[in-house]
Amino acid sequence: MELREYFDEVAPTWDDLVTEETMGRIAGIIDRLEIRPRCRVLDVGSGTGILLPFLATSMRDEGTILAIDISAEMLRQGRRKACPSIVEFAQADAMAIPLADGSVDIAICYSVFPHFYDKLRALTEMARVLSATGALVICHTMSRAMINELHQNIGGIVADHSLPDERELRKQAERSGLRITYFEDRAERYLVIAEKDRR
């Protein structure tokens, strides 16, 4: 089974896994990012669009959000919701983002980074579409250790899908032209913010 097929299969029940506690943690992450109105936001691996209402509220429904995912069924589930008018959807791979260089202010990866089969390539591609002052965000509502253990317990195609340790992630970010400016890893959230390296 390919990864796209796996996510197509789990998409109809994906939102059943989201608890009120999870939603509260997501709200805390978005508040921490201080996303402003009129931003150009890329939601990479958007899934069923869990982040979209939080992003749109933070932006006061001003700006643009492009939600991309490799799974057509995940996107279909997202489109079925009452989505803000500033949201557009596109089926695309993080390794081949259909946007021009420097065209987004924020690229955010919520609960998806472990699933990129070539993390360096994904980081490089996201760095490409970021503006000179843009930021990349990688986030989860649990710690790195908990995420990695969860995927091991699920098994199958995602068994070895893991978040790299901080040292390895910093090395990959540097190779892709990014510089990590914030790193947090605790039980209730994992949050990494990186910027274009202008040194």
CATH superfamily: Vaccinia Virus protein VP39
Number of strands: 7
Order of helical and strand elements: HHEHEHEEHEHHEE
Indicate the proportion of strand residues: 25-35%
CATH topology: Rossmann fold
Q: What is the CATH C level class, in words?
A: Alpha Beta
Number of helices: 7
The rounded Rg comes to: 16 Å
The strand order across the widest sheet is 3-2-1-4-5-7-6
Model regions low in confidence, pLDDT < 50 over at least 5 residues:
none
Tally of separate domains: 1
Gross geometry: globular
Structural class based on helices, strands and sheet pairing? alpha/beta
Averaged pLDDT, please? 96
Most strands sheet: 7 strands, mixed
Any guess at the CATH architecture? 3-Layer(aba) Sandwich
- Could you estimate the helical fraction of the residues in percent? 25-40%
**Cα end-to-end separation:** 43 Å
